Amino acid sequence: MEIMKDQQIVYLSRRQAEVAQLKESLAKDDFEFSQVVGHRLKGHGETFGFPQISALGVSLETAAKDRNMEKLKEIVKTLDDMVEENIRLINA
Length: 92
Description:
By secondary structure, the protein is mainly α. The chain has one domain: HPT domain (Four Helix Bundle (Hemerythrin (Met), subunit A), Up-down Bundle). The protein has 4 helices and no strands. It starts with a helix and ends with a helix. This is Hpt domain-containing protein. Keywords: Phosphoprotein. GO terms for molecular function: protein kinase activity.
């Protein structure tokens, strides 16, 4: 069980870095990066025990394909909050 917890922390730490990159890419109207990240998230969030991150990945990828900046910003904010909350819960 401890191994999974360690893997979850590493996974979430990588998502923290990705959120920062997403924010930078959105400031540059880079929809492609959001689409790629969304695709990755939908594929591996559940693997690490975070199905809600996988669901956000689907939304992120779709919003990027639709070039919906308002929705992308909302999803990135939700992802940021979710990652931080999960890190807090794991470390509690």
